[in-house]
Amino acid sequence: MKFNLKTPYVVGVVVILIVLLLFGGRMFFIIEAGERGIIFRPYTSGLDTENVYGEGFHVIAPWNELYVYNVREQQREETMDVLDKNGLSINTDVTVRFNPIHNEIGFLHQQFGSNYINVLVIPEVRSTVRQVAGRYTAEEIYSTKRAEVEQTIKDETRNVLGENFIEMRALLIRSINLPQQIKGAIENKLQQEQEALAYEFRLQREESEAERRRIEAEGIANYNQIINASLTDRILQQRGIEATIDLAKSENSKVVVIGSGKDGLPLILGNN
């Protein structure tokens, strides 16, 4: 049989084609935008938690596994019944926005797997909301300390998820619903408190006005006392003389002095 040098090359090409046909789907991967990948090597080192594959084209050995995670911001909405400090049932609607920490998805996969949203995120959110609500009364949650309750839930949820490779972007409490009877009682109480505050404000305003008038009256009285103490007979005579001189200078009067008036002041008569 005549040996052909091209035969090994043909055989090699055929083998490569067969390998590509059989294992191409397990060797070539494209990681899309907003995704990250990690490799599991079953016959050597196992799960590679340190190296995270970014977006683009990747080639791996066909016996290895590539796990791809969506690392975009995701959102989940939850409706739950929680108990307040006194055991009263409260219905709450919560929205949480989050994403896996990009360079830690290997550890996330190792501990919680690809179903981490249902295994980790949702249970922790629900647990935190219940724990925080149990520290407050229904009235505080519904009205007087609502902002404090919301902030506490956000802080504690962010901490517990952050410790488990999840970055919480936001947590929104869309609504807090109480039994209608309790809600009406709380709103009625709040209305009465507002009316009491308004009444107290009016009283304080009237008291302030009364105090202002009292101080003004005392000032006028003190002024009159000072004036009266300073008005002696001689000062009054002096003021009378000054007034007489001013009248005498008037061009519209013809003045005749005929002796003196009471208290020694000049007596001035007009032309008529």
UniProtKB/TrEMBL annotation:
It is a single-pass membrane protein. InterPro entries: Band_7 (IPR001107), Band_7/SPFH_dom_sf (IPR036013), Prohibitin (IPR000163). SUPFAM superfamilies: Band 7/SPFH domain. Keywords: Membrane, Transmembrane, Transmembrane helix. It comes from the Bacteria. Its main location: membrane. CDD domains: SPFH_prohibitin (cd03401). Pfam families: Band_7. One of its GO terms (biological process) is mitochondrion organization. The chain crosses the membrane at residues 9-31. One of its GO terms (cellular component) is membrane. Residues 26-190 form the Band domain. It is found in: Membrane. This is Prohibitin family protein. The lineage of its organism: Bacteria, Pseudomonadati, Bacteroidota, Bacteroidia, Marinilabiliales.
